[in-house]
Write a structure and sequence with these properties.
The complex is a heterodimer.
Chain A (H helix, E strand, L loop, with lengths): L2 H15 L14 H5 L3 H15 L14 H16 L1
Chain B lengths: L2 E5 L9 E7 L6 E2 L4 E7 L2 E6 L4 E6 L6 E3 L3 E6 L12 H5 L4 H6 L16 H10 L17 H10 L1 H4 L11 H15 L2 E9 L1 H13 L8 H15 L5 E4 L2 E4 L5 E3 L1 E3 L3 E3 L2 E2 L7 H16 L2 E3 H5 L3 E5 L18 E5 L3 E7 L2 E15 L5 H15 L6
Parallel strand pairs in B: 5-16, 12-17, 17-18
Antiparallel strand pairs in B: 1-8, 2-4, 2-7, 3-6, 4-5, 6-8, 9-20, 10-11, 12-15, 13-14, 18-20, 19-20
The chains are: A mainly alpha, B alpha+beta.
Chain lengths: 85, 391
C-alpha cells in the first residue's frame, strides 16, 4: 500500500466516524477536535477502524497521535513499516 | 383475525411530527415485534422505527416523504400475535410498570452493521441521505454485500446528477427550538434540587489503565462506561430516581434504561438509552455506548433507544468542567452529571497527596424525592466507583 492509498484509507475511516463531515472541509494538519468537535468516543472508534483496516496495534497511549489526518497518516505509515520490518 | 395499527411514534415529550423517509417493509411482509419497519426523520436525525406488534403488513397508508403528526396511522398489520404495544409508544409507556415485561423483553438494539435489512453502514446511510443517493441503487462491496461509505462516495461521483437531488424528507424542525421547549418545560414544571459530591477516582483510574493495557482495542473502557454502570446500579437500588412523573403521579420503572447525553456536531443533542444497563457487564455497556455514539452522530438511532430512558447521565469530562448542574429531561425525575477527572490535592488519614477526582452531581425532582435520599443515591455511585472490578 503506497502513501496515497494509506491516506485515502485513513480518510475513509475518519468519514466512517464522522459521516456528516464534508471531506473538502477537512484541513489535513488541524486537529479533528478543533475542526469537528471530535471527542474521545470518536477517537476510540477511529482507532478501532484503523486497527481493523491496517491490522496494526494501537495502544491507548498513542491515541493522541491520531489527532489529525496528517498525524494519523504518519502514525499508520510508521506502524505499517514496523510491522513489515 | 385481529389487526393492529402502526403509528408515527413519539420519540420524546416534545416531538410533534416526523417525516417518513423510507419503508423497510411492503404489503405481505411478515414482521415480528422489534423489527425495523420504517425510517423516520425527526429533529434527532433519521431514526429506525421498530414495530411493537407482530403480524403481516396489509397496507401502507403513508408514502415516503410525507410529514405526519405523532400518532398518525402509517400502516395496518393483521394476525398480530400481540396487540399490547402502545399505538404511539412514548417515553412513559416504553418503560412504565404496566409495560415492564414488554420493555424487559424488548430486543436490545443490534449494532447497525449487523442489521440484515439495512445492508449499509451508518456512515454510508447518513452520507447517502445527505447526498440524495438511493441506497438500493448502490452496489455494496462490504461483508455480505453491505454498502460502505466508499461505495456511496463512488456512486455519487459516478452519478453526480442523481447525487445532487434533494432528500425526499422535509427539513428537520429547528433544534434549538426543540431543546428550548423541553428545557423550559423541565424548569417550569419540575422543582429541581441539586446535590454534588467529589469522588476519589484513584482506584478506578488504576483499574482502567490495567484493564485497557491488557484488553483488545474493541474491549477497552472509558470512564463513561463506569459512570453509566454505577448510576444504573444506584437506580436499581433506589428506584424512586428511576421512572417518570406524569399526571401528578410518579411511576417507577422496573427496568433501568440509562440515557446518555450525546452532543452531535452542529449543536444537536440526543440522549439514547443503554437498555437494562444495570444488568450488563462493563464491556457490553462500553460496546453499546460506542455504537450509540457513532449512530447518534450519523443520525441513525432507533426509536426504542430514544423513548426508553428512565434516567439520564451527562458528562462534560473532556471540556475541563469541574461539575455540572444539569436539567432533568421530562418526564424523568433524575439526571446525574459527571465532571472532568482531574488531579486535585486529596487528604487521606491526615496525609495529603495528588489524586484523580471527579465531581458527581445529581439533579432530582423534589416532588418524588428529598435531599437525604439524593445524598444516599450519590453515595451509592461514589461507593460503586471504589470497586470498579465489581461493576
Amino acid at each position: 500500500m503506497n502513501a496515497t492509498e494509506i491516506e485515502q484509507q485513513v480518510l475513509n475511516q475518519f468519514l466512517e466516524v464522522a459521516p456528516d463531515v464534508e471531506p473538502a472541509q477537512l484541513q489535513r494538519d488541524a486537529p479533528f477536535r478543533d475542526q469537528f468537535d471530535f471527542d474521545s468516543m470518536d477517537t476510540l472508534n477511529f482507532a478501532i477502524g484503523l486497527h481493523k483496516t491496517f491490522n496494526i496495534e494501537i495502544p491507548e497511549t498513542d491515541y493522541r497521535q491520531l489527532a489529525s489526518l496528517a498525524s494519523a497518516v504518519a502514525y499508520v505509515s510508521a506502524a505499517m513499516s514496523r510491522t513489515r520490518a | 383475525m385481529s389487526s393492529s395499527e402502526f403509528r408515527m411514534p413519539s420519540l420524546g415529550p416534545d416531538m410533534e411530527s416526523g417525516t417518513l423517509v423510507e419503508w423497510r417493509v411492503k404489503p405481505g411482509d411478515v414482521v415480528k415485534r422489534g423489527d425495523v419497519v420504517a425510517l423516520v426523520e425527526t429533529d434527532k436525525g433519521v431514526i429506525d422505527v421498530e414495530t411493537f406488534s407482530s403480524g403481516t403488513v396489509t397496507q401502507l397508508l403513508v408514502a415516503a416523504g410525507a410529514h405526519v403528526p405523532v400518532g398518525a396511522v402509517l400502516a395496518q398489520l393483521q394476525d398480530g400475535e400481540e396487540r399490547g404495544a402502545a399505538p404511539t409508544p412514548t417515553a412513559h409507556e416504553a418503560a412504565a410498570p404496566a409495560r415492564v415485561e414488554r420493555a424487559a423483553s424488548a430486543p436490545a438494539p443490534a449494532p447497525a452493521h449487523h442489521e440484515p435489512r439495512s445492508r449499509a453502514s451508518p456512515a454510508a446511510r447518513a452520507r447517502a441521505h445527505a447526498l440524495g443517493v438511493d441506497l438500493a441503487s448502490v452496489q455494496g462491496t462490504g461483508p455480505h454485500g453491505v454498502v460502505t461509505l466508499e461505495d456511496v462516495l463512488k456512486h455519487a461521483q459516478a452519478a453526480p446528477a442523481a447525487a445532487t437531488a434533494a432528500p425526499a424528507s422535509a427539513p428537520a424542525p429547528d433544534m434549538r427550538r426543540i431543546i428550548a421547549k423541553a428545557m423550559s418545560r423541565s424548569k417550569r414544571e419540575i422543582p429541581h434540587y441539586y446535590l454534588c459530591l467529589t469522588c476519589d477516582f484513584t482506584k478506578a483510574t488504576a483499574w482502567l489503565q490495567q484493564h485497557n493495557a491488557a484488553a483488545q482495542i474493541e474491549d477497552r473502557l472509558s470512564p463513561a462506561a463506569l459512570f453509566i454502570k454505577a448510576t444504573a446500579l444506584a437506580a436499581r437500588a433506589q428506584n424512586d430516581f428511576n421512572g417518570f412523573y406524569q399526571d401528578d403521579e410518579f411511576a417507577p420503572s422496573a427496568n433501568v434504561h440509562v440515557g446518555m447525553a450525546i452532543a452531535m456536531r452542529g449543536g444537536r443533542l440526543a440522549a439514547p438509552a443503554i437498555l437494562d444497563a444495570d444488568r450488563k457487564p462493563l464491556t457490553t455497556v462500553m460496546h453499546e455506548l460506542r455504537d450509540l455514539t457513532a449512530r447518534a452522530r450519523a443520525g441513525h438511532m432507533r426509536a426504542l433507544e430514544l423513548s426508553a430512558p428512565t434516567i439520564t447521565v451527562t458528562s462534560l469530562a473532556e471540556d475541563g468542567v469541574d461539575f455540572i448542574v444539569p436539567a432533568i429531561y421530562p418526564p424523568q425525575v433524575a439526571i446525574v452529571g459527571f465532571g472532568s477527572v482531574v488531579e486535585r490535592p486529596w487528604a487521606i488519614n491526615g496525609a495529603m497527596r495528588a489524586a484523580p477526582v471527579v465531581a458527581i452531581s445529581l439533579a432530582a425532582d423534589h416532588r418524588v424525592t428529598d435531599g437525604r435520599a439524593g445524598a444516599r443515591f450519590l453515595a451509592r455511585i461514589r461507593d460503586a466507583l471504589q470497586s470498579p472490578e465489581q461493576l
